[in-house]
């Protein structure tokens, strides 16, 4: 997600602003003191821009109305949430397990821990079910692994019996069906992206980080010759995959044809608005600005010429047209944005059309509404008592939060 300290098999821990991924961690007492001092400062001086309502409509909820309802527990370091078409819910755990949530408890669906290199920002990071999973049993994962001493990202397809009840035996059977479809090296151990999702067009979208370290030392964000720092789009209709004929850089010399959009630093979590089809991305910043983007075909979102809407290494733009973020926020509000979902459920009509997002560091949860390209509502809704690693959406459009430290799932409501 951000420049987290890298441990052989440890949790995600945000370092001080702009710290290198390989820096030594601060002592526990120092981290607690710094967090407490920050909260004291924020409580004393207020939170600039923390709660804003820009011409809110009468139907919009007051921020104090939002509640988190416990939904499930018993997970270990959950990283992503996926809903299969029939309504079954699944969560990935960083060390390599996929758990199905059954009666509010995890049930093992697949264990890839022997293949997954986990710790820091590495691990099992993404899961997506094929739109026709009920027919073909296909699902896809994104994880990091080490081969011959080299860290790699792997996107693979597995096959499961859609009607089988998960068990230790079925998990072993499923593990043997892996078909690797996309593999690429990671030059550093951070900024691995990890999100994968099927779009409304049936294509598989893949978020990739810029390759890591700090400040994009390899210039990958603006380089169309690499998959790093991008949103990729592929057709998985046959193995390993096909490049869709309408991808924007298909015929550009030197460009990777799988690229859908570029100029991203670490798009840890993205989602599609199930009503409009818009692709919303939370792109984790360097050391000053976090950003929210609505990503479109061929768009250049600025990194590392820009961080959020602000210059970073402007010479790297080389005259390119950069797309403005929908929203960015500074270090006084957080340090690792977690992209969420636009609410399209039926249980809470007042939340209709609000994009929920959070910050792993500050633990704040915000809601934003955008209409005709303009923000009409933007407010901090609450501060969670845990670091949020991801959001989830079920078949009915209801939204969930993953508690990274406590291994719990919460449902968003009022």
Fraction of helical residues = under 10%
Query: Unreliable segments (pLDDT under 50, ≥5 consecutive)?
Result: 1-11, 13-58
- Please give the radius of gyration in angstroms: 20 Å
What order do the helices and strands follow? HEEEEEEEHEEHEEEEEEEEEEEEEEEEEE
User: Can you tell me the CATH architecture?
Assistant: 6 Propeller
Q: CATH topology, anyone?
A: Neuraminidase
Summarize the biggest pleated sheet.
Answer: 5 strands, antiparallel
How many helices? The count is 3
Based on Cα principal axes, name the global outline: globular
State the end-to-end CA separation.
29 Å
β-strand amount? 35-45%
Quantity of strands, as a count: 27
Average predicted confidence as pLDDT:
88
CATH homologous superfamily assignment? TolB, C-terminal domain
CATH class: Mainly Beta
Features of the shown structure:
3 helices; mainly beta; 4-stranded antiparallel beta sheet; single chain; 36% strand; 414 residues; Neuraminidase
In brief, what are we looking at here?
The chain is built from 3 helices and 27 strands.
Describe what you observe in this structure.
The protein has 414 residues and is mainly beta. The protein has a single domain (57-413), classed as 6 Propeller (Neuraminidase), CATH 2.120.10.30. It is built from three helices and 27 strands. The protein has helices at 28-45, 133-136, 168-175; strands spanning 51-52, 67-72, 78-83, 89-93, 97-102, 105-111, 124-129, 138-147, 150-159, 179-185, 196-198, 204-207, 230-234, 259-262, 269-272, 279-283, 289-295, 306-307, 310-311, 327-330, 337-338, 355-359, 364-371, 374-383, 388-393, 399-403, 408-413. Strands 1-24-23-22-21 form a five-stranded antiparallel beta sheet, with no helix packed on it. Strands 2-27-26-25 form a four-stranded antiparallel beta sheet, with no helix packed on it. β4 and β5 (97-102) form a beta hairpin. The protein is globular. Residues 1-11 and 13-58 have low confidence and may be disordered.
């Amino acid at each position: 997600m951000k420049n987290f300290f890298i441990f052989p098999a440890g949790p995600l821990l945000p370092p001080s602003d702009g710290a290198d991924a390989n820096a030594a961690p601060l002592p526990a007492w120092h981290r607690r003191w710094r967090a407490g001092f920050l909260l004291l400062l924020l409580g004393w001086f207020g939170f600039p821009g923390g709660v804003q309502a820009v011409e809110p409509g009468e139907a919009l909820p007051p921020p104090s109305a939002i509640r988190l309802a416990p939904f499930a527990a018993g997970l270990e370091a959950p990283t992503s949430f996926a809903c299969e078409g029939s309504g079954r819910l699944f969560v990935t755990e960083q060390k390599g397990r996929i758990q199905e949530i059954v009666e509010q408890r995890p049930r093992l669906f697949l264990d890839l821990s022997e293949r997954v290199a986990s710790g820091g920002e590495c691990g099992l990071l993404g899961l997506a079910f094929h739109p026709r999973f009920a027919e073909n049993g296909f699902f896809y994962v994104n994880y990091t692994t080490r081969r011959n001493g080299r860290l790699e990202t792997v996107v693979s397809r597995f096959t499961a019996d859609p009607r089988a009840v998960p068990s230790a035996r079925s998990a072993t059977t499923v593990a043997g069906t892996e078909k690797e479809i996309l593999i690429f090296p990671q030059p550093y151990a951070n900024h691995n992206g990890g999100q994968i999702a099927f779009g409304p067009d049936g294509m598989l979208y893949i978020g990739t980080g810029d390759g890591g370290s700090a400040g994009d030392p390899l210039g990958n964000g603006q380089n169309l010759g690499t998959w790093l720092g991008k949103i990729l789009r592929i057709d998985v209709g046959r193995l390993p995959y096909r490049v869709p004929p309408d991808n924007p850089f298909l015929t550009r010399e030197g460009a990777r044809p799988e690229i859908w959009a570029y100029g991203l630093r670490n798009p840890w979590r993205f989602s599609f608005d199930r009503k409009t089809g818009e692709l919303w991305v939370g792109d984790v910043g360097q050391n000053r600005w976090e950003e929210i983007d609505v990503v479109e075909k061929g768009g250049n979102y600025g990194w590392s010429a820009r961080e959020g809407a602000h210059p970073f290494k402007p010479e790297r733009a080389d005259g390119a047209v950069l797309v403005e973020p929908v929203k960015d926020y500074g270090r006084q509000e957080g340090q690792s944005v977690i992209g969420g979902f636009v609410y399209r459920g039926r249980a809470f009509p007042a939340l209709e059309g609000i994009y929920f997002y959070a910050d792993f560091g500050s633990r704040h949860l915000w809601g934003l509404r955008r209409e005709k390209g303009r923000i009409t509502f933007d407010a901090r809704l609450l501060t969670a008592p845990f670091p949020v690693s991801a959001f989830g959406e079920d078949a009915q459009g209801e939204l969930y939060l993953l508690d990274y430290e406590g291994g719990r799932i919460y449902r968003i409501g009022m």
